[in-house]
Amino acid sequence: MSRIRQHNQHLILEAASAEFAAKGFDATQTRDIAARAGVPKANLYYYFHSKETLYAKVLLGFVEPLLEASAALRESDDPVTGLQAYIAARIRIAREHPHIAKVFSGELLLGGRQLPEECRDLLYAEAQRNVECLRSWIDRGLLAPVDPQHLMLFIWSATRTYTNLGWQMAHITGRQTPDDRDYQRAAQTITRLVLEGVVPDGGARTKGLMFAT
Fold first, then answer.
1. 25 and 62: one domain?
2. H/E element holding 75?
3. I need a surface site. Which of 46, 74, 141, 208 has the fewest CB within 10 A?
């Protein structure tokens, strides 16, 4: 791929992420994406052919960070280390990819009707591996006997708050958008809630943890 082509595609994807995040798929116009990207509208269709194709590409761009976050959960056999890394990684995604995160969350709220099949397959398989990891820790007595599926759902919902509840977050924090300190405190708070709820002596084990995101 030529450098110019790669650069233009990046500009279009970044602009599309912002437009889809602000307006949703149906209300977004390709002319607005092209204008935000600073490229002719014809270039958008040359690289992506349709708004649907471009939307799918935006969604696909969010899968890799999610898979990396899931891998962080299973890298250690210690649930404290794994859960801390997983929560920090998901908070980092919200901080580093705010537009794509919002687009992805919006798509899931609509039932994932336009989520590409390859996304579905990858995310389903990864979710099953994560639940089995939690179940293994539970069976070995490393975690409390909670439902691993609902524990995973709780972590997903808690870490997605900073994507979905921007208006409410602004009223709580007094800032229009969360800053780095907010994200760090979010990771710390969610980690403490999870570990103190499901890890034996979880409160004692969280006292010396570092919570960089």
1. no
2. none
3. 208
Q: How many domains does the chain have?
A: 2
Confidence of residue 37 (pLDDT cuts 50, 70, 90): very high
One-letter amino acid for residue 106 of the chain:
G
pLDDT in tens, 58-76: 998 888 899 999 999 999 8
Nearest alpha carbon to residue 161 among 150, 148, 174, 170: 170
Tokens at residue 87, please? 């929560």
Which residues constitute the domain of residue 103?
Answer: 56-200
- List the one residue out of 25, 186, 161, 184 whose CA is nearest residue 98: 161
Judge whether 69 and 181 are in contact, CB under 8 Å: no
Q: What is the CATH number of the domain that holds 62?
A: 1.10.357.10
